[in-house]
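Late entry, written up from scratch paper. The run itself happened at the end of the previous shift, but nothing got recorded in the book at the time, so transcribing now.
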Amino acid sequence: MAEADRTKAGHRKRLKERFKKTGLEGFHDYEVIELLLTYAIPRRDVKPLAKELIRRFRGFMGVLEAKKEELTSIKGIGKRAAALLLLLREIAQAYLKESPIVKTLVKRPLDAVEFIRRAHPGGAAERLLAIYLNTKNEILGVDTLHEGALEGMKVSPADVADVIGRAFRHNARSIIFVHSLPEGGVSAAEAGKGLSKAFQKAASAVDIII
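Output as recorded:
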């Protein structure tokens, strides 16, 4: 084995040993990505690649929120590495939905906005989301109802029934609609308000607060 290959192998081994001993404590964001990439890209120094991903997508969260096409546009990220990163995101989201962690309390509209920015960033997509809350105003779950421009969007009776059905499945007492704009912005534009009103009548009939 060439000296360069032995050095790379030694670095990978040390990185994995650190994780075994301390978890991710003390890891930089790029080191977390680097560790992941070692399982998808064998026999290559992936540290520069990890740093480039962090730079390109402006942080760890941005890497996990990137689409497959965006990931594979980075030289060195093939389908296998992209699939691993996408899988990690899906696993994390599934875990958070099932995890019995302390629920986020919404005391004011800004709490809901900050929760979406932190836990459900949307990248470059405009979205309409529904946040489901219990009687204590604790968040039970979040669904993306629409992705893309809201202007001119029509809400059908089936759409209304679907949202109400989701609220029942969450055992929700109330729903907050959030219009999320690219780069984490949130708008109270008329398009978002109009869609909220479309759900309000049906929700009030089954004693759910919008």
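The first helix runs from residue 3 to 22.
(Scratch paper discarded after transcription.)
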